[in-house]
Design brief:
It is a single chain. By secondary structure, the chain is of the alpha+beta class. The chain has one domain: 2-Layer Sandwich (Alpha-Beta Plaits). The chain is 29% helix and 36% strand. It has helices at residues 19-29, 52-66; strands at 3-11, 33-38, 44-51, 70-75, 85-87. Strands 4-1-3-2-5 form a five-stranded mixed sheet. Strand 2 and strand 3 form a beta hairpin.
C-alpha cells in the first residue's frame, strides 16, 4: 500500500472542545504523521500522511466524535521528512 498525504479543513464546533488533542491521539493511533492547528476563522486545519485507509479512518473517527459534517479534503505532496504527528500553533 502506498503512502499518501491529505490537507483537511474541519468546520463547525471544532475549537475549544479538545479537537486538536483528540486529533493528535487518533492520528498517532492510526500511525499517521502530520500536523493539526486552529485557524483564525474558527476552523481547524490538519495535514495527515500515511496509508490512505488509515487517513480515512482518522477523519471518520474525528467526524463521529465531534459530530462534524463540514470537511474539505484535498491531496497534497507527501513529505518524507515528517516523522510524527503534532499540534502546531
Amino acid at each position: 500500500m502506498t503512502d499518501t498525504a491529505k490537507h483537511i479543513i474541519f468546520k463547525g464546533r471544532v475549537q475549544g472542545v479538545g479537537f486538536r488533542f483528540t486529533a493528535q491521539s487518533i492520528a498517532r493511533r492510526c500511525q499517521l504523521t502530520g500536523t493539526v492547528r486552529n485557524l483564525p476563522n474558527g476552523s481547524v486545519e490538519m495535514t495527515a500522511q500515511g496509508h490512505s485507509d488509515d487517513i480515512s479512518d482518522c477523519i471518520r473517527d474525528l467526524q463521529e466524535t465531534f459530530g462534524i459534517t463540514n470537511v474539505k479534503i484535498t491531496d497534497i505532496q507527501y513529505d518524507p521528512r515528517q516523522s510524527d504527528f503534532r499540534i502546531t500553533f
